[in-house]
């Protein structure tokens, strides 16, 4: 504890050291962040203001929109501000908070996307029992479990990282406080911690991805017995969700495999 207290702040290397590139990144990421905020706020406003949208699918969509705003806000504002700052620093506890919120909302997004796949499975494959399966209480329980699961994941990741001692190296080779860049600064053997955080993230990502894959496989097989109109309606409700899942999980799996390879080999 005495060693860890020697570090009161960390310094980010950031995305680039070139002033011109930093200005370009600043404009680009600010635009992306504003689009994310406005788009998700419009979704939330639409869902809450229209009683016809008070259904399980839109309940989880509003959860997803809120998570997306919070997930982006965990890192983007600080990163954008740092792009036009000479001193890219963050306090020790600010780094703890950023890592916790980043993993909390990121994991919550994975769980909510998985629950949404189950909702689509129930709607398409069990249409007569859909209202019973996805009752209001069931939706609240599934959403609560998603948030609690994310809380547990984030707590483990953050605790494993910051229970280590940090000495004089304060420069994080990244643009926000993520687990592996911060672990590189610890003045202790991090082999076991690296393995644990990889296993924690990997099992959650892979497990949810397999559930999503199984849900869509069952949905696609069930559509063979439906009319072309029924197939069109079912696919239209799943298409946007499947697109989001693809863009979210493919980079996650790629990054997970790349980090695992870098650490193990």
Low-confidence stretches: none
* Helix percent band: over 70%
Largest sheet: 3 strands, mixed
In CATH's first tier, which class applies?
Answer: Mainly Alpha
The CATH topology label is Rhopdopsin 7-helix transmembrane proteins
Number of domains: 1
Multimeric organization? single chain
Classification by helices and strands: mainly alpha
Q: Give the name of the CATH superfamily.
A: Rhodopsin 7-helix transmembrane proteins
GO cellular component, one term: plasma membrane
GO molecular function: G protein-coupled receptor activity; olfactory receptor activity
InterPro entries: GPCR_Rhodpsn, GPCR_Rhodpsn_7TM, Olfact_rcpt, Olfactory_Receptors
Family: Belongs to the G-protein coupled receptor 1 family.
Structure, described:
With 265 residues, the protein is mainly α. The chain has a single domain, classed as Rhodopsin 7-helix transmembrane proteins (Rhopdopsin 7-helix transmembrane proteins), CATH 1.20.1070. It is 74% helix and 3% strand. It has helices at residues 19-49, 56-73, 76-82, 92-125, 130-133, 136-162, 179-183, 191-222, 228-264; strands at residues 9-12, 89-91, 171-172. α1 runs antiparallel to α2 (56-73), α2 (56-73) packs antiparallel against α4 (92-125) and α6 (136-162) packs antiparallel against α8. The radius of gyration is 21 Å and the shape is globular. The relative contact order is 0.12.
